Amino acid sequence: xxxxxxxxxxxxxxxxxxxxxxxxxxxxxxxxxxxxxxxxxxxxxxxxxxxxxxxxxxxxxxxxxxxxxxxxxxxxxxxxxxxxxxxxxxxxxxxxxxxxxxxxxxxxxxxxxxxxxxxxxxxxxxxxxxxxxxxxxxxxxxxxxxxxxxxxxxxxxxxxxxxxxxxxxxxxxxxxxxxxxxxxxxxxxxxxxxxxxxxxxxxxxxxxxxxxxxxxxxxxxxxxxxxxxxxxxxxxxxxxxxxxxxxxxxxxxxxxxxxxxxxxxxxxxxxxxxxxxxxxxxxxxxxxxxxxxxxxxxxxxxxxxxxxxxxx
Length: 312
Known about the structure:
The protein is an alpha/beta fold. The protein has helices at residues 5-13, 17-26, 29-54, 57-78, 84-90, 92-101, 103-117, 127-139, 147-158, 164-167, 185-194, 228-231, 245-255, 275-283, 297-311; strands spanning 169-170, 177-178, 198-203, 205-214, 238-240, 259-263, 269-274. It has 15 helices and seven strands.
């Protein structure tokens, strides 16, 4: 009865042989409970009667208490409960026998309990509890969860609590292009050095984003002297800077777009967010390629803002 029925079900589904043996018995919780308690009371009563017939009342009581305490409580609790799955699987045949023998007496009791109490409730854990479990498993030598898996699992459980404004690239450090800007050799080299594959394009001011420029659209084309607006993609998706990351990730998947413009409640552009920004939150570390020069643009933006305040 100390085995959680829902945990047994999960283990049985994953192929645990011991759980497969125990689950068919344990899932009928009230019937098993009534059978075990009836058998327990019967054994205790029979033991008391037997000892009472061969010893005085006080001696019989002391001996019965000692036997029940040692073999009915201490040993099962201290030894068997530590290896409950193993011992439980080895004794299922015996439990099936008592379930059958006592069925006429225990079934009515179990039926009433089922109607009154319903099925057993599963144990629901909070995110913080699951994170604690993951940390404990990673620290245990018996677990096959390593540090990388721990970091990713914790990131997957917590990234949905974070908002766009916490992970976006601020507009102050994001490279944006004017649609009327002409392509020059210097500009092309500058775009290439950023290591980015797409850039927001604005008209007049940065709060007026009108498109995205994809580097792939420039490959193999004669673009020197052309305006940025001629080669940009006019489809632009915006997202509130207050949106949660799980909602934004779903939006990325649904739109098949990898960059959104982050705006505030007044439609002002606050920055840009990419799929990579969200993946970094899930894996728990910065994803840098060979062309990245700055590990954290958000930190760079904060330093830039701090330096500006100092100068003023």
